[in-house]
Amino acid sequence: MPRVMLILPTETYRATGFLHAAEELGLQVVVASNEAPTLAALMEGRVLTLDLRHPAESAERAADFASRWPVDAVVGVDEASVLTAATIAERLRAPSRNPVQSVAATRDKRLLRQRLTENGLPQPRFVALDAGAGASDIDSAIAVAGLPCVIKPVDLAASRGVIRADDRSAAGAAVARVASLLREICADGSVSPMLVESYVDGVEVALEGLVHQGVLEVIAIFDKPDPLAGPFFEETIYVTPSRLDDAAQDAVHQRGARRGHRTRTAARPGPRGDPHRGVGSNCHRGSGTFDRRAVLADHPRRVRRRTRGNTVAGERHPSRGVWTRERRDAHGRQGLRVFMLPIPAAGILRGIGGANRAESIPGITGVTLSIPVGQPVVPLPEGDRYLGFIFARGDTPEAVEAALREAQALLDVDIREVPPGGIEPPSTG
């Protein structure tokens, strides 16, 4: 039985999907995470504790592990794990679709912008800025990027720390706010820089796919019907299949195909309709459409060979040369929609009611809550999590989008503010 090492950050919500996919494919799994499970002593050869902040050190620990329990492939499941996964794969000489150098570029928005510019993909104007930048540095950055502009960390994801500024005063405040966030989360004292970019207006979509033998295989294009205009970029609804016309979808496909790696990317059309990489990468989360079986079975050569062709079927679009996946449920309904539940305020999560009522709405297929009651919650731009997800299927995007909004309105989120001093107010019952 082939053995796959899954790099699973403790805080990820993707673990269940990948573990189920591995079970379906008959793969033996090694869970490598930044915290050991409670029963680790009883799971010899199946768990490995790594410090995901240090890929080279993690690679050496993985090599020692693999000397006793050989590993056929290494897969990182989300943004926090892909660089470590690529480094481990290189150290183990395991087959990998993602060279370390390429993955590093996707984890640093400066490098990503530079690489995409070098390959002729339209980009917003951008300038790197240190966290300790002064007023003159901010003025120089604005002179290049223009106003409005977007300030963002170079190495965070999920819209964390991303702020739009419409004037010089707002830009200065945004730089200070992002710098404060970076100092707070950089435990080793090395504060990463940020980018100041020109703001690109327009409809935003997300493309999700795999690059197989140099060809982009598109899994889905997602529409985002709620406007993302700032000052913060909190995403809510994703809808597939896209309602863009064929010409617009072809343009997104063509730009995505030039990116050249496993991709979850967002794009906005610029003034002439060309898709700009104006909103970063790896933005799609939690929709459930990213096929984990495709990643596990179609990713490494040895696993693909030893799973005897148990991959996910797809068919090539005659004009685009990429895969399209007709995803229908047992009732023949096409398409999937997800509502990512935002965190409305900072405090302690005391409960979320109404989930059963929300699930009873026609078209709603599930409500998943990802933060336990009693945990602190923080909204964007400082926060890094969503409360959960509402999933739906249906015959038309419009009908299911309406169902998602109705379901979200039925949820009763109880967040209690923590007063100065950090003492939680007593429960009222």
Structure description:
By secondary structure, the protein is an alpha+beta fold. It has twelve helices and 21 strands. A four-stranded parallel β-sheet has the order 3-2-1-4, sandwiched between helices. β12 (263-269) and β13 (275-276) form a beta hairpin. It starts with a strand and ends in a 13-residue tail after the last strand.
Biggest sheet: strands side by side, in what order? 3-2-1-4
Radius of gyration: 22 Å
- How many distinct beta strands? 21
Low-confidence stretches: 277-294, 296-333, 425-429
Overall morphology: globular
The number of helices is: 12
Structural class: alpha+beta
| Mean pLDDT value | 80
Characterize the main sheet. Answer: 4 strands, parallel
Please indicate the percent range of residues in DSSP E strands (runs of 2 or more). Answer: 15-25%
Proportion in helices:
25-40%
For the record, give the distance between the C-alpha atoms at the N and C termini, rounded to a whole number. Answer: 52 Å
